Amino acid sequence: MSGVGTPSADGGPSAIATPRLVSDLSVKCDRIDRKIDELRRSREVLDDAISTAAGEGTDS
């Protein structure tokens, strides 16, 4: 995130949140939330496939 905030004197994050920084961070949070939702859905599909496969394997 080069150029969106100036580090503090001790090298930590800037204490001043510019509108651009807030916007950039909000966009990143939204993207992460979407990815987490996608991963949860994928995990549910995989869990169902594993359960189905395990159930089919024990029926024979």
What radius of gyration results from the CA coordinates?
22 Å
Helical proportion, percent range: 55-70%
Distance between the termini: 56 Å
- Structural class, by secondary structure, is mainly alpha
Determine the number of helices (DSSP H or I, runs of at least 4 residues). Answer: 1
The H/E string reads: H
Unreliable residue stretches: none
Total number of beta strands: 0
Q: Give the integer mean of the pLDDT values.
A: 84
Strand content bin: under 5%
Largest beta sheet, briefly?
A: none
Shape: rod-shaped
Overview of this protein structure:
It is a single chain. The chain is mostly helical and about 60 residues long. It contains 1 helix and no strands. The radius of gyration is 22 Å and the shape is rod-shaped. The protein starts with 18 loop residues before the first helix and ends with a helix.
